[in-house]
Design goal:
alpha+beta, five-stranded mixed beta sheet, disordered N terminus
């Protein structure tokens, strides 16, 4: 079963769109005499909760439907929280508005939870579990509750459930969004290195101090130098300079929700650290699509051209230079394309290589600090030998490297057949034998 984990986060945070299990301490609530204050609370409760009673019952019914799913622990925990609040209000020891807030919070959680639990769900859940075990090691780094959900695109989402007891910890539910439907035939193993990009969001959500402190210092130094350079500017030139400096700060500054260039680049570097050439190949497949503007400026992600350069440089540092030539060639094509003809001074200023270099250095330092398992040539040699013997790779990194190696060695048809055979074998291994 998937348990509801918790994490140390600010109380003001309720949801981010990208632990150990703990128990709430619940005491018996005594109902005393109706003092004047309690009479007021009782009247307020009757007026306030009556319109919401049906909604509360609806939510309870939805939670009970989770009992026959892999998410039963989540349903039980949320139902327990809801009943705890309802009982507290009935006893007059809690404000009736708390029930409305809790019901709304649970409704939002129910909306994002998966509602299909086929073979792909179990496959994806096991992939996530293997990386959790590998990345955690002796220290809890990833959230205890990370759930796969199929949909339109890759992504990470976290919802924090406000504690209803004196416990200061706040439970979290984390989703990894994967493209496609809950069908095993929709699994494309060549794209699955992106699962490490999304899990890196989970890792950095709960412990990114190493990265943030280092990069924030580098960014402040860079912006300080820009301000000094423009200290003599006057009038319109001064206004333009300040506006550009602010835009650089807005795009690159690390934020809690990770909707910034620094965090997204760090996720790429972390995935490269964990998956090696398999991530380079997946990223190259992604950027070779002709319809995507590689120089697009937007808040959530740095331009593909900037990400590609960062990965190319990081691959040299990590010893994957022989596998990064494809990304370099794509970059050359971009510069010779109509997209490349439209670059202006604003783009050049916002994407200064000094910022990229500082960011990837901080990301690599964070991976080292986390002691994350690093993909090496020894891993590739081990998996290559396994494939030579005709063995089925295990979930996690082994499977990602095996798929990458197979694709390098086989034609489309042969690879597709191997992929489906491997997926079926792995899913079958998850099915318990009947007694």
């Amino acid at each position: 079963m998937l348990a509801l984990g918790d994490a140390q986060v600010p109380r003001s945070v309720t949801k981010i769109t990208d632990d150990e299990t703990s128990q709430h301490t619940r005491g018996t609530i005594q109902v005393g005499f109706l003092t004047p204050r309690r009479k007021v609370l009782l009247l307020a409760r009757r007026r306030y909760t009556q319109p919401h009673q049906n909604k509360t019952e609806d939510v309870l019914q939805q939670l009970r439907k989770l009992r026959d799913t892999p998410l039963s622990n989540i349903g039980d925990t949320l139902e327990s929280d809801l009943n705890f609040v309802a009982n507290a209000i009935q006893a007059g020891s809690a404000n009736p508005s708390l029930l409305v807030a809790v019901v709304q919070e649970i409704e939002e959680i129910l909306q994002i939870l998966p509602d299909s639990f086929g073979d792909r769900f179990w496959f994806d859940a096991q992939m996530i579990y293997e990386f959790q075990q590998s990345w955690n090691g002796d220290t809890q780094r990833l959230s205890g509750t990370v759930i796969p959900k199929t949909g339109k695109a890759w992504g990470h989402e976290s919802v924090f459930v406000t504690s209803t007891s004196a416990n200061e910890r706040i439970k979290s539910i984390n989703l990894i969004h994967l493209p496609g439907q809950d069908k095993l035939s929709d699994v494309d193993l060549l794209t699955y290195p992106f699962i490490c990009h999304e899990l890196a969001h989970n890792l950095f959500y709960f412990d990114d101090n190493e990265f943030v402190v280092r990069f924030r210092r580098a960014l402040d130094n860079y912006l300080g130098n820009l301000r000094l350079r423009g200290i003599a500017d006057q009038g319109e030139a001064k206004a333009k300079s300040l506006k550009l400096i602010q835009e650089i700060d807005d795009l690159w500054s690390p934020t809690l929700n990770h909707k910034n260039w620094a965090h997204e680049m760090a996720m790429d570097i972390t995935a490269l650290w964990a998956c090696g050439p398999a991530y380079l190949a997946a990223f190259q497949d992604e950027i070779e699509e002709q319809s995507k503007n590689p120089y697009l400026i937007e808040q959530r992600h740095p331009p593909y051209a900037v990400r590609a350069r960062a990965l190319f440089i990081a691959s040299q540092k990590l010893g994957w230079d022989q596998h990064s030539s494809g990304i370099k060639e794509v970059g050359k094509k971009w510069r010779q394309s109509p997209w490349g003809n439209g670059l202006d001074n604003r783009y050049i200023a916002l994407t200064d290589p000094k910022l990229t270099d500082a960011c990837l250095a901080c990301a690599l330092a964070a991976c080292e600090s986390y002691r994350l398992p690093r993909c090496t040539t020894s891993d590739i040699e081990r998996i290559s030998l396994m494939l030579t013997r005709g063995e089925t790779p295990d979930f996690g990194l082994d499977l990602l490297l095996a798929a990458w190696l197979r694709k390098e060695q086989q034609d489309e048809g042969s690879f597709a057949a191997w992929e489906q055979d491997t997926l079926r074998a792995l899913v079958k291994s998850l099915t318990p034998l009947s007694p």
